[in-house]
Design brief:
The complex is a heterodimer of chains A (about 150) and B (about 525).
Chain A lengths: L1 E3 L2 H17 L7 H27 L5 E3 L4 H21 L1 H20 L4 H25 L12
Antiparallel strand pairs in A: 1-2
Helix pairs in contact in A: 1-2, 3-4, 4-5
Chain B lengths: L1 H10 L2 H18 L6 H8 L8 H26 L8 H12 L3 H34 L4 H12 L2 H4 L4 H15 L2 E2 L6 E2 L13 H20 L14 H14 L2 H14 L5 H16 L11 H17 L1 H7 L5 H12 L7 H4 L2 H35 L2 H20 L2 H19 L4 H24 L14 H25 L24
Antiparallel strand pairs in B: 1-2
The chains are: A mainly alpha (about 150), B mainly alpha (about 525).
Chain lengths: ~150, ~525
């Protein structure tokens, strides 16, 4: 999908917004803590302003291209954040089992129709993949993975 | 010399060689998982060495270190995900090569470069440790600031396209590095009321987010895997090995230059392999006859990155073994092991306990040699897995491993959220021309620059013009000259191009992606 956008202007505005976000809470800090970030914020503003000026004088790309399906992109982002949220809620193992299954089904549908039989056939493969990494991290690397706030 | 041969004989036993082989394999496996760094590999495998003799334990850890730094190249090449931060530069050309169906060639080139780099590092360590160590202590805060500035001139070559956008990306990275407790002032900055942000944004979290998540989103929206079908291995190991050997050793200047850069930066405490590979990559591009081909699948980029970061493994041991200064975080663990066995860094290490020290250094050389068979076979196996696995299994698996790797860093659930957030923002930043590489570079160098800058200001507080302290020492002046030279040589070609004095070159492609038209080329 092609979206008309002056990329120099977008980058410049983004730079100014980020600098403003960090400029506001600076008053509470001591000199030693703020001296370097302040210099960098000023530099960021200068570069962002240069980009804004360039956007009007000699703009670069005036369009961006989102390769593939934008809807799939949005759904993929939603799945990633839902996966993260679910880990905190129901624990790593259950959240990953559900998200892995859902994400696989969603992606597989792009190139074929996924029958219930095929999905059932995939369950052992997914269980093995999740199980291997779960055991490797919890038992070998001694990482305590989240068990979920809902159960505690 | 007697101690050297005694150490050599200790290694050349079945038990010694097996320890190194197992160490290299374990390090390679851990290093190839995104988020699991060489430091983590050493920390995780450290308890296993408690039951070993001091020499065997040190041999195992040296092998793990070497294997894990090399292992980072696997995922960097195959799925555009640096397994360790020192493989960032490997992604720039390694992944485009893989997308063009040259994945195994890139892996073989990385293997050869890593082996040579590892051996060169060990040779430097054995021959030049004491004189090089003296150089390490002359780097004070002002010099470190200029080292960081020198690193930031890389933005010009990493920005690929717009220098202003590259600079903005670098600024974003530096500002992200200031989140958390101030290293000198001790105050909490920019945490927006979130206590968990006091520890700042971990480099690995940003690295995984900015490199992996945009690629996963791109693959999901396009419905494709990490590598096209043309990425299948054609010909055998021997053909790829001979081809890459001819290329690398036929014109060895790139390899030699990268090894020297790796060694020089490795002895500067705090610089680490992350900076080493980026500087070596930048210089390879600058001195290349075809700088435009970098970022599009030039094998010299892979060679520069991988040889320099493996030189760093033994190279960073120079200040560690002679002065007790860890050059990189992983070295701090090695230092702990040395102290645990009653070995104190200094000249005594090379005289009174010379057998142990020489044994440890030599074991890293053997580990580098073992990278060749282990890497070539492991690379073939992992390559096959990446190509054969359907993308609808591959993508969720990548996400699962990145979530696990990010969480395992600090047992922080927030880190996982930050990784996903940075990655999603990174995807959209990429669309408007702000690449991940300058942001990560800023994040790495921001901490070094801030420490150097603020400490110099503190030292010079009584001077009439405190900032002159930054250019007071002769070494600082040399570094300033190098910064100016580096900036000028980076900017000059684009200025000449714009002013019409040089033929216009094709604009760089996104280093994170390959031109779709080039996909599928044999």
């Amino acid at each position: 999908m092609i979206v008309r956008l002056n990329t120099d202007l977008a980058a410049g505005i983004l730079g100014l917004a980020f600098a403003a976000l960090l400029w506001l809470p600076r008053e509470e800090m001591g000199r030693l803590s703020i001296v370097f970030p302040r210099a960098m914020i000023i530099l960021t503003v200068l570069v962002a302003l240069a980009l804004v000026v360039k956007a009007f004088v000699k703009p670069a790309e005036r369009q961006i291209e989102i390769e593939g399906s934008p809807l799939r992109l949005v759904i993929a982002i939603a799945i990633l954040f839902a996966w993260w949220y679910a880990i905190g809620l129901i624990g790593f193992l259950m959240a990953t089992a559900i998200a892995f299954f859902g994400f696989t089904w969603f992606l597989a549908r792009i190139e074929m129709s996924v029958s219930a039989r095929r999905l059932i056939m995939w369950v052992p493969i997914m269980a093995l993949l999740i199980g291997v990494f779960y055991v490797a991290f919890t038992e070998v690397l001694s990482v305590r993975l989240p068990t979920g706030s809902i159960w505690s | 010399m007697e101690m050297f041969f005694q150490a050599l004989m200790s290694i050349l036993t079945f038990e010694g060689l097996l320890t190194i082989l197992v160490g290299v394999t374990a390090g390679l496996f851990i290093g190839s998982l995104p988020g699991l760094t060489a430091t983590m590999a050493l920390a995780v495998l450290l308890p296993f060495t408690f039951t070993m003799s001091p020499l065997q334990g040190l041999m195992a850890l040296g092998a793990v270190y070497m294997g894990s730094i090399y292992g980072g190249a696997f995922t960097a090449i195959l799925i555009n995900t640096p397994g360790t931060p020192s493989s960032i530069a490997t992604t720039f050309d390694g992944y485009p090569m893989a997308r063009q169906g040259k994945a195994y060639e890139a892996l073989v080139a990385a293997t050869i470069a890593s082996v040579v780099g590892g051996i060169v590092g060990v040779a430097f360590l054995l021959l030049l440790a004491p004189p090089l160590a003296r150089l390490a202590v002359v780097f004070g805060p002002a010099e470190m600031f200029w080292v960081a500035m020198l690193g930031l001139t890389l933005v010009a070559s990493l920005s690929s396209g717009s220098l202003l956008k590259g600079l903005l990306g670098g600024c974003f990275g530096i500002l992200l590095s200031t989140i958390g407790v101030s290293p000198v002032g001790g105050e909490t900055r920019f945490n927006f009321g979130i206590p968990a942000l006091q520890g700042g944004i971990e480099l690995i979290v940003a690295l995984i987010g900015l490199f992996v998540v945009p690629e996963v989103l791109s693959m999901a929206s396009q419905g494709r895997g990490a590598l096209p079908e043309s990425g299948k291995l054609e010909g055998g190991v021997g053909i790829a090995f001979r081809k890459m050997s001819r290329h690398i050793f036929g014109k060895p200047v790139n390899l030699i230059r990268s090894c020297i850069i790796g060694q020089i930066i490795a002895i500067i405490p705090g610089a680490g392999g992350n900076v080493t590979s980026l500087v070596a990559y930048n210089e390879a591009k600058r001195f290349s006859g075809k700088p435009d081909s970098f970022g599009k699948g030039n094998v010299d980029g892979v060679v520069a990155s991988e040889s320099s970061n493996n030189v760093m493994v033994a190279g960073s041991m120079v200040p560690l073994l002679t002065l007790g200064i860890p050059g990189a975080p992983a070295d701090a663990i090695i230092l702990g092991v040395l102290l645990m066995h009653g070995l104190r860094p200094g000249i005594d290490l090379f005289t009174e306990t010379g057998v142990l020290t020489n044994g440890f250094v030599l074991s890293m050389g053997f580990a580098a040699l073992f990278l060749l068979p282990v890497g070539l076979l492991g690379g073939r196996l992992i390559h096959r897995v990446v190509v054969k696995t359907p993308f609808y299994f591959m993508l969720p698996s990548i996400v699962m491993v990145t979530i696990l790797g990010t969480y395992a860093l600090r047992n922080s659930f927030l880190d996982v959220g930050l990784m996903l957030l940075l990655g999603t923002i990174g995807y959209f930043l990429r669309l408007i021309g702000i690449r991940a590489a300058p942001i990560v570079l800023g994040l790495i160098l921001g901490i070094i620059a801030e420490n150097g800058y603020v400490q110099t200001m503190l030292i010079s507080i009584a001077d009439p013009i405190p900032w002159l302290g930054l250019v007071e020492n002769p070494l600082s002046k040399v570094l300033v000259a190098l910064v100016l030279l580096s900036a000028a040589t980076s900017l000059l070609p684009s200025w000449l191009e714009r002013s019409g004095r040089m033929a216009k070159t094709t604009p760089d492609e996104n280093p994170d992606r390959v031109n779709p038209k080039e996909e599928g080329k044999p």
